[in-house]
Amino acid sequence: MKKFFLSVLCLGLIITSCKKNDDGQVIEEEIENPEEETPVTVDIEVQNFFWQTLNLWYFWQSDVPDLADDRFDTQTAYEEYLTENDDPVALLENKLLFSEDRFTFYSDDYTELVNNSAGVSKSNGLQFGLGRISDSDEVFGFVEYIVKNSDASTKDIKRGDLFVAVDGQTLYSNRENPEDNNLDLLFSDNDTYTLNMAEIVDGGISASAKKVTLTKSEGLEEDPIHVNTVITSGDKKIGYLMYNQFVSGNEDELNAVFADFVSQGVNDLVLDLRYNLGGRGSTAAVLASLIKGTNTSDLLFKTIYNAKIQAQLESSFTDNFFVSTTGTNDDNSNAPLNTLNLNRVYIIATEGSASASELVMVGLAPYMNVVHIGGTTVGKNQGSLLFVDDPENGNVYSPENVDNINPNVQWGLQPIISRVENSAGFSDYIDGLVPDIELSEDVTNLGVLGNADEPLFARAIQEINGVSGKSNFDVLIPANVVSSSKLHDPRNAVLLLNNSVPSTKIPLAEKK
C-alpha cells in the first residue's frame, strides 16, 4: 500500500534534454516547449486537499476507485492526476464522491460553513415552503415562520401568508423536468426582492394586489428555540417546544426551557421538529437526555466509520451516551440537566425534518414510546464533519487552529464520514421515518405555532388526552413541498459530529 502527501504547490511543463560533453559526462539542459512559450502552471492545492481528506475520512472511501490507497503507483502519477483534473469542483463531484451520496457539500470559503452550523447566515428572515398549484407547473410559496429580529419581522408578512411571484415573475417548476424552474429568484445573490402575495379564493390560490419587499442582512443569527409554552388540557400539563436547529452553545437555553416545564408540572411533551433539518450530535444528546433522563450508561447512538478509521478507534470515540449536564462546548455552563424523565414523547416531524432530528427520534425509541405525528422525514442516517486544509490536525477544522489553515486554500469540505445507529442497532431509515399519525400541513389553515388549535399540535393533544371520538383534520390544500428555504440548501440537512474523532491520532497519507 502506497500513500503520498503532495508537497509541491504547482507544476510547470518543461522539456528536459540530455547530452554528453567532451569528457563524456551527461549534462541536462532545459528547452522551451516549442508549442508553449510560457510554461503552463496548474495550482493543485485544492485538489490535493480534497483527495487527502476523502482518502482518509470519507465513509464510502472503499467504494470510490479514485480514492483507493493503491490508486497511484508513484508520487508523480498522483501529481499528474491532480494536474489533469484542473477543476477542483469537477474532480470532487465527478470522480471523488460516491454516486449515492446526497449530503456531502463544500464551499470555497470555510467560514460560510462555520457560520451555517452556528445558525448564522445572510438572510431576510423569511422561512418558507414551496408547493405546486394543483396539476400545473405553477408554484406557490407559503410562509412557515419568520425569524425573530430579522427584516421580515418588521414587514407585513406572517406565517400562513402566500405568494406566487417574485419581482413580478410567476414561480414555476416543470413537472417533467424539475430542473427547468425559476425558483432561484428566491435563492439568488440579490439582497432585495419583492414578493407578489396571494390569497385563497374559491378553494384555489390567486394573486392579490399586495406586495412585500424584503432585504437580506449579513450575520442574522436565528434563535433555534422558536416557541416554548405550557398548556393545560383536561388534567394534563402539556409542554410544547418548537426547536428549529441543533446549535452548539444553545444547551443552557434548552435547559432553562425544561426547568420551566419541570416547575409547571409538565407530564407530557410535544417536541416540534417539523422544520428542523439537523445540526450538532452533541446538542441532540442533550435534548434527548432532557426528555428521557440522564443515565450516562445508556447508549444513545453509535457512529460507524469507514474500515480504515474504524479499525483505529476505541469505543469512547464511537459510542455516544445520554448526558447529565449541558456540557462546556461553546461556553455552556456544564449545568445539571432539568430532565422530565418521560416514558413517552410526541414528536412532530415532516419532510422538513432530518439528521439530528431523526437521530433524537431513533435514539429515544429503544427507551420510550416515540409517537411520530406529521409526515415521512428526509432520511439522513449519516454524520459529517468540517474539514479545512490543516494537515497537522488531520484536516479537521478546529477554531483554535485557524492560524494553521493553508492561506492559499480557504475551502471547507463537509463530507459524510459516518453512519449512525441506535442502541438496538437500527439505522435503516435512509428512506425516512414514517409517521405513526400522518397529517400534512394545510396551507389554508397553517395556524399559529404553539397555539392549541394549530392542527398538528391539536392532533398531538388529542392523542395525549385519548379522545375517543377524535376530530377530523381535513386538509384542503396540503403543503406538498417542492422545495423550501431550508431544503434548497443541502448544508442545512446535517448531523455534525464534534468531539467524536481523534483528529491528531490518524495522519493523512504520508509522502512516499
UniProtKB/TrEMBL annotation:
<dbReference type="GO" id="GO:0006508">
    <property type="term" value="P:proteolysis"/>
</dbReference>
<dbReference type="GO" id="GO:0004175">
    <property type="term" value="F:endopeptidase activity"/>
</dbReference>
<dbReference type="InterPro" id="IPR029045">
    <property type="entry name" value="ClpP/crotonase-like_dom_sf"/>
</dbReference>
<dbReference type="Pfam" id="PF18294">
    <property type="entry name" value="Pept_S41_N"/>
</dbReference>
<dbReference type="Pfam" id="PF03572">
    <property type="entry name" value="Peptidase_S41"/>
</dbReference>
<protein>
    <submittedName>
        <fullName>C-terminal processing protease CtpA/Prc, contains a PDZ domain</fullName>
    </submittedName>
</protein>
<feature type="domain" description="Tail specific protease">
    <location>
        <begin position="237"/>
        <end position="385"/>
    </location>
</feature>
<dbReference type="InterPro" id="IPR005151">
    <property type="entry name" value="Tail-specific_protease"/>
</dbReference>
<keyword id="KW-0378">Hydrolase</keyword>
<feature type="domain" description="Peptidase S41 N-terminal">
    <location>
        <begin position="45"/>
        <end position="105"/>
    </location>
</feature>
<dbReference type="InterPro" id="IPR036034">
    <property type="entry name" value="PDZ_sf"/>
</dbReference>
<dbReference type="GO" id="GO:0008236">
    <property type="term" value="F:serine-type peptidase activity"/>
</dbReference>
<dbReference type="GO" id="GO:0030288">
    <property type="term" value="C:outer membrane-bounded periplasmic space"/>
</dbReference>
<keyword id="KW-0645">Protease</keyword>
<dbReference type="GO" id="GO:0007165">
    <property type="term" value="P:signal transduction"/>
</dbReference>
<dbReference type="InterPro" id="IPR041613">
    <property type="entry name" value="Pept_S41_N"/>
</dbReference>
